[in-house]
Design a protein that fits this description.
Elements lengths: L11 H20 L3 H14 L3 E2 H7 L8 E6 L3 E6 L10 E6 L4 E12 L2 E9 L12 E8 L5 E6 L26 H4 L7 E4 L14 H14 L9 E7 L4 E3 L5 E4 L2 H15 L9 E6 L16 H12 L7 H8 L2 E5 L2 E2 L21 E4 L3 E2 L10 H13 L4 E3 L9 E2 L3 H5 L4 E6 L1 E2 L7 E4 H15 L3
Parallel strand pairs: 1-2, 4-13, 4-14, 14-20, 15-21, 16-18
Antiparallel strand pairs: 2-3, 3-13, 5-6, 5-10, 6-9, 7-8, 7-10, 11-12, 12-22, 16-20, 17-19
Length: about 475
Amino acid sequence: MERPIAWKKYSAAQLAELEGFASDYAAFISRNKTERECVAEAIELAKAAGYRDIEDCIAEGAQLVAGDGIYASNRGKSLILVKIGREDLTRGINILGAHIDSPRLDVKQNPAEEKNDLVYLDTHYYGGIKKYQWVTIPLAIHGVVAKKDGTVVPVVVGEDPADPVFVVTDLLIHLAAEQLEKSGSKVIEGEMLDLLVGNKPLCIEGNDGEKNPVKSQLLAILKESYGIDEEDFLSAELEVVPAGPARDLGFDRSMILGYGHDDRSCSYPSLKAQLALDEAPVRTALTILVDKEEIGSVGATGMQSHFFENVIAELMALTGHGEGTLAMRRCLANSDMLSSDVSAGYDPSFASAFEPKNAAYLGRGLSFNKFTGRGGKGGSNDADAEYVARIRNVMDAHDVAWQTSEIGKVDQGGGGTIAYILANYGIRVIDCGVPVLSMHAPWEAISKADLYEAYRGYQAFLTLE
């Protein structure tokens, strides 16, 4: 059952809308390369759309009614947005769930080291990466440094054309005979991912005998530029990401090459679909943008935390359902969800890893994965047939281009999403998202058509009655 190419169906007006959406998306992921940055901009967009902070609603003892929009932030790293519908919440809500963290390098807590007149920052990789892909490319640093006095200093270096960039070096080919005999996982090992950040010694009168003059120069620059000391690294969250903006890919400009398509190519359309609801939907619409998916959805800002459940409990109270748990559990058990996460795009260069009939192809629309997991569906949510049929119906009714897929051949590998966590509440869930080439690489590729169809599909889902 080969699905048609989405590009063929667009009118001139739709192509213009597609290009506008893709341009806005590329700008968004170029500005926002960390979960903190994504949440901060999402909150500003939500406020502009009339959404209110749930904390203010709680403090005021407000009673929410159909059409009200609220948001809840979790430590500035995860976000929930809700548009109250006309139907009672106990009959269920429509949920879009995506993650906003991406694979990267994190600066360690005690990172600065001078070696042979070069100064480095040690890193620890975050999420599943091919480590050799992170060498010899320009890198930027995004994040925050929290000082003991409570001050939080934002840091973004490497994005402005006037900024310096940073790099992880590699061994020159002339001396790499032994290195090239190693397996891909050993060519570059984790402790080799040191970020080169300086070479110039601090030159002041009387410091000729200083042990680490290049490191001293780095610390002097950090003090002057940000007012931070070396010990402030202990309470810093600094993420090392590819430097530079997302770009159009291909002579026909049909694709986007950028960092963080996994999972911002799903979280951004989810956010925009949520905010596009300009009046009260039939069912309450909720979008969650969550952290830590790439390392198992753990921690206080991951999907396994009680943040989602706590917000639903507050939501029930703010809509007159009291503070007991029964109404909340009825709400969740009657709810529907799209776990908005990317799928592996079929790559002809690596065709042997895919099963062609059950692969996602770039340009054929939003991809649905009935199940994910690995080795016999291990760790998977497996959507029931009735729910899949319901989703098929709503997508076709709204003329959304869509396809189905699995993540490669059965024994090739696999992966997971947040879907199984939400399914634990009895929520009906299916994974769906944008097909991606070079997933988890510093630069990933997607089709603009698939991005646009994700937005249209998420809009259609939020109207589900």
